[in-house]
Specification:
CATH topology: Arc Repressor Mutant, subunit A
Strand content: 5-15%
Helix content: 55-70%
Radius of gyration: 19 Å
Number of helices: 6
Shape: elongated
Distance between the termini: 30 Å
């Protein structure tokens, strides 16, 4: 058990470094979108049929809090609320083209920031990292399903 605790401490420290690299990329964006608003945009981007109640549930907040986040995003031109064509009582949340561009730009900034750090690592260490992260994802119940770098 002691070994697992030592590994957990190292992983926690490494994750904090990873989060710092990603956060620097987010803050370099102009204007920087606050983390809570970015989470809303990410949720809406991942699910075309997001409505206010699903968003509030996913965020773990009351609907009025989710609505205020959406108000801010709508005011900045990143989110639209439209009546759901299947049920006019429901309001569907949609990303604007500006939000899609902003998310794509952020993704590119994050990947560039990560690549800059990874370039300072030897290729063998990069491959070990990929294998370890894939094993961690599998152990956590989130197997890597994206198309990308695969190890043999």
């Amino acid at each position: 058990m002691e070994r697992a605790t030592e590994v957990a401490t190292t992983v926690e420290s490494s994750v904090e470094s990873l989060v710092a690299v990603l956060e620097q990329a987010r803050l370099a964006q102009n204007p920087a979108v606050p983390p809570a608003q970015l989470r809303v945009l990410t949720i809406v981007a991942a699910n075309r049929h997001t409505n206010m109640s699903r968003l509030a549930e996913t965020l773990g907040v009351v609907p009025s809090s989710a609505s205020r986040l959406c108000d801010r995003l709508e005011a900045t031109g990143l989110l639209r609320r439209v009546a759901d064509p299947r049920d006019r009582r429901e309001v569907r949340l949609l990303l604007t083209p500006a939000a899609r561009r902003m998310l794509a730009d952020l993704r590119a900034r994050r990947r560039a920031a990560l690549a800059e750090v990874l370039d300072r690592m030897p290729p063998e260490a990069q491959q070990e990292l990929v294998r370890a992260l894939q094993a961690f994802g599998t152990a956590a119940g989130f197997p890597d399903t994206r198309e990308g770098l695969r190890t043999a």
